[in-house]
Amino acid sequence: MNKKTVVLGASTKPDRYAYKAVTSLKRHGHEIVPIGVRDGTVEGIKIRKGRPDVEGVDTVTLYLNPRRQEEYYDYILGLQPKRIIYNPGTENPTLMQLAKKEGIHNEVACTLVMLSIGDY
Fold first, then answer.
1. Are strands 45-46 and 41-42 parallel, antiparallel or unpaired?
2. How far apart are CA 48 and CA 64, in angstroms?
3. Predicted confidence (pLDDT) per residue in 35-85, tens digit
């Protein structure tokens, strides 16, 4: 099942987990919206900057540390995703509380592991 996923903190550097997540999500057939701070592409998908309008988001997977997430709180919640995945190092109790109030499921997990074991 295709789960439209916003990858927040996307990178063009192949050694970064955000890059690996985009490639793995694509390989698993999910629609991906990579959002980062630098221009570039991953697997032919353009990294978008800022806070682009995105409809029908199932999942936001985070690759930004909690301090860097703060400026995106309203944006993330405004996407109205079904869930937010907090990859290792991105756990954020403040955002988790805000999301929970909006009925958004919080998941502390690793996107790459979830995809590899078929639990995405």
1. antiparallel
2. 15
3. 999 999 999 999 999 999 999 999 999 999 999 999 999 999 999 999 999
Q: Tell me the HSE value of 24 on the side-chain side, using a 13 A CA sphere.
A: 20
66 vs 113: CA distance, rounded Å: 21
Q: How many structural domains does the chain have?
A: 1
pLDDT in tens, 103-113: 999 999 999 99
**67 backbone dihedrals φ, ψ, rounded to 5°:** -65, -40
Q: Domain limits at 80?
A: 5-116
Buried b (16+ CB within 10 A) or exposed e, 38-71: eeeebeebebeeeeeebeebbbbbbbbeeeebee
Whole-model pTM?
0.96
Instruction: State the Cα–Cα distance between residues 51 and 76, nearest whole angstrom.
Output: 9
Q: What is the CATH number of the domain that holds 83?
A: 3.40.50.720
* Cα distances (angstroms) measured from residue 118 to each of 1, 7, 84, 114: 11, 19, 17, 6
CA 65, CA 90: separation in Å to the nearest integer? 5
